Amino acid sequence: MARTNKTTRRTCRQVNSSVSITPTSPRRSQTIVDTPRRTRLICAAESTAGKLPRKELFKAYGVSESTGYRLLKSKSTRRSERIHNRGRKRVLAPYQCDAIETVENASFQFAATSHYAIARAIGLDNGSERAIRRNMAEYGVGTFMAQQKKFISSTSIEKRGIWGFDRRYWHLNDFKRYKYSDESHFACALQRQARIHRRRGTDARNAPKKVQFRFKRRNQVWHVFAYIGWDFKSKLHFYTGSGAGGRLTQVDYVTILEEVVAPNWDPNWVLLEDNDNAHGTRGDADNKCKQRRNVWASVGNLILQSRLI
């Protein structure tokens, strides 16, 4: 039987030079960011535009710069353009969330009220309290502990400014003569720190409508008096006044002046009080504290005159 022509192995193993066999790395996959994080990032970028650098914003939300810029460029909270029919629908639209936030920024009382109460008051209670709270959190308005500050009236602020303006040319030696006295009060129970609704950041925390001012508490049971000055500190004097709740009265204050202040007092010193009612500095009527000050002033002048002589 005659042999037929067959393709040899060498012919089959010839390499086709037109096909490149250089290995190529696959394309790097994009970071997948879920829809809630996309929503929060886009809303935060809109609210902090021009106030917070983008790098800090991306770092706060845990995304890289390339991913963050890609999400902001897309302007979509979805990962694809197709219509999604999965997941829970939003109860509040963005403009409705903005309306609730505007009301909460109007005053501290509204900021300390629940989202659901505000939404119900303006007719936007389309869902449950939990759903409205979740939608507001996705919009960027969270719940935080309020910053507390001591309340100072506008009259006191104006008087302090005038006092400092009148003494703007004083030197350090001019202030060394003054001794500043004050009373402190301690409570045995805590005052509740309010929880308010606001956005993240120091600007929102220090906003005047988001600050909780501390007024005088009724549960204060420990009272202490002291006075300080340049390179000087007096001892703490604990007392229980004869007023309501152990408050200080003018009779008690005169006793403190005689027993605590007078023994170590220098005639060259000037005592600056905080204008409390018990100090007897308000009004033009005569009282025991003013009489005692007049006696001290006359004695001080006599001592100064004797030293000069």
Automatic annotation (TrEMBL):
Compositional bias ranges of the Polar residues kind: 13-33
GO molecular function: nucleic acid binding
InterPro entries membership: RNaseH_sf
Region (Disordered): 1-33
Highest taxon of the lineage: Eukaryota
Segments of skewed composition (Basic residues): 1-12
Listed name of the protein: Tc1-like transposase DDE domain-containing protein
Organism: Endocarpon pusillum (strain Z07020 / HMAS-L-300199) (Lichen-forming fungus)
